From TrEMBL:
<protein>
    <recommendedName>
        <fullName>DDE-1 domain-containing protein</fullName>
    </recommendedName>
</protein>
<feature type="coiled-coil region">
    <location>
        <begin position="285"/>
        <end position="319"/>
    </location>
</feature>
<dbReference type="GO" id="GO:0003676">
    <property type="term" value="F:nucleic acid binding"/>
</dbReference>
<feature type="domain" description="DDE-1">
    <location>
        <begin position="28"/>
        <end position="120"/>
    </location>
</feature>
<dbReference type="InterPro" id="IPR004875">
    <property type="entry name" value="DDE_SF_endonuclease_dom"/>
</dbReference>
<feature type="region of interest" description="Disordered">
    <location>
        <begin position="332"/>
        <end position="389"/>
    </location>
</feature>
<keyword id="KW-0175">Coiled coil</keyword>
<dbReference type="Pfam" id="PF03184">
    <property type="entry name" value="DDE_1"/>
</dbReference>
């Protein structure tokens, strides 16, 4: 068993310059284990997460029943004591107990006496995987024309194809045979400590000038014939890039991973079935939230419609009151005009009559007993008080 770190979007063949801190900050770590029977245990993937959560967009490509993989997370993206114990109990013991039955099982780890060298074991176990993953990543980058950045959600599909390509039964048998672990053969290891002699290779070419001309003609014709294929490849790559970009718009959310069984370690590896159950719970919760928001929006819309209806009714009542008031005023004005038309016009006393009235009042004749009349603005006759008579 051994581990390997992955940097998202960086192939193993490329040469780049970056800080030591970035190299130490592996975004994803793989825990892999192979057996002498030619079989590999399900891989364990450790995602880097500051809060120790697993985001939904990271594992949306993992399908229960199709992929055998376990997922967990750590703040650094590396394994630790808790994750190592969790892997031993939840992955290794689980998948080897049934096959070993009551027999002992030998687990070879880094630092044990049976370990040869770090570089040698890394080459035997992870060199094919590194090459396969770099090939898948390079193909993905070429297909997308380098327009779309690589995110954690894009890692698993590339990794799984590389895993199936590199961790084959034939390769696993060769790795155990090359280390002399099984079948036990110490000479395989002892030969590696002997000095090796190298022969100089002849750098001269065995091809004639005519052969070179034929090869050049074939290359030129292949380039012309491959122009259409290259154009189709670019079109297909752009289409893949747009699909990946639309998938990147989805924001990941921390999955509600519910632990039903207690283990000795603090960390937990999650299987595809557990991840799918968490995704289903999240989808149900999001659907309930959407329905609740929709219900609240409908209630708000109904309240707004009711308020608008009340305002409309109040406006109609106000308009009706104004209309009734204007009608009453018009009727009153029309009646006033009729009264004025029916009433005879008031005659102003001439000067002679005023003198005679004044004279009779002073003289105390019969005219003094009749009160003076005064007309109001509306044409009504009123009796003057006695002091004004």
């Amino acid at each position: 068993m051994d581990e390997k770190g992955f940097l998202i979007g960086i192939t193993g063949r490329s040469k780049r310059i970056f800080s030591k801190q970035m190299w130490e900050r592996k975004e994803i770590t793989l825990l892999a284990c192979v057996g002498a029977d030619g079989k590999a245990l399900p891989p364990g993937l450790i995602y880097q997460a500051a809060q120790g959560n697993v985001q939904s967009t990271w594992v949306e490509a993992i399908e229960a029943g199709k992929h055998q993989v376990f997922v967990t997370s750590s703040p650094s993206g590396w394994t630790n004591n808790e994750i190592g114990l969790a892997w031993l109990e939840q992955v290794f013991d689980r998948y080897t107990k049934k096959q070993a039955r009551l027999s002992y099982r030998l687990l070879i780890l880094d630092g044990h006496g049976s370990h040869v060298t770090q570089d040698f074991l890394q080459y035997l176990m992870f060199k094919p995987l590194s090459s396969a993953y770099s090939s898948e990543l390079t193909h993905h980058l070429h297909a997308s024309q380098g327009l779309i950045p690589i995110k954690k959600g894009d890692f698993f599909p590339l990794f799984w194809r590389a895993w199936l390509t590199s961790f084959k039964e034939e390769s696993i048998f060769k790795s155990f045979k090359a280390t002399g672990i099984w079948l036990l053969e110490r000479e395989v290891i002892l030969k590696r400590f002997h000095s090796e002699t190298y022969k100089e290779r002849d750098s001269s070419s065995g091809l004639s000038e005519a052969d070179w001309r034929k090869m050049r003609a074939l290359v030129q014709s292949a380039v012309k014939e491959g122009a259409d294929k290259q154009a189709n490849k670019i079109t297909y790559g752009l289409r893949e890039a747009l699909t990946t970009k639309s998938r990147h718009k989805n924001k990941g959310k921390a999955l509600d991973l519910q632990q039903r069984e207690e283990y000795h370690g603090g960390a937990v590896f999650w299987s595809p079935r557990k991840l799918r159950e968490a995704c289903v719970r999240q989808e149900v919760r999001e659907q309930e939230d959407r329905e609740l928001r929709l219900q609240k929006a409908e209630v708000k819309e109904l309240k707004a419609a009711a308020t608008l209806y009340k305002q409309k009714i109040a406006e109609e009542k106000r308009v009706q009151r104004e209309r009734v008031k204007n009608t009453a005023r018009a009727i009153q004005l029309s009646q006033k005009g009729k009264r004025k038309a029916l009433r005879p016009p008031a005659q102003k006393p001439c000067k002679k009559q005023a003198i005679e009235r004044g004279g009779s009042t002073v003289g105390g004749g019969e005219a003094a007993s009749e009160p003076l009349l005064k007309t109001t603005r509306r044409g009504r006759s009123v009796n003057l008080p006695s002091k004004y008579k």
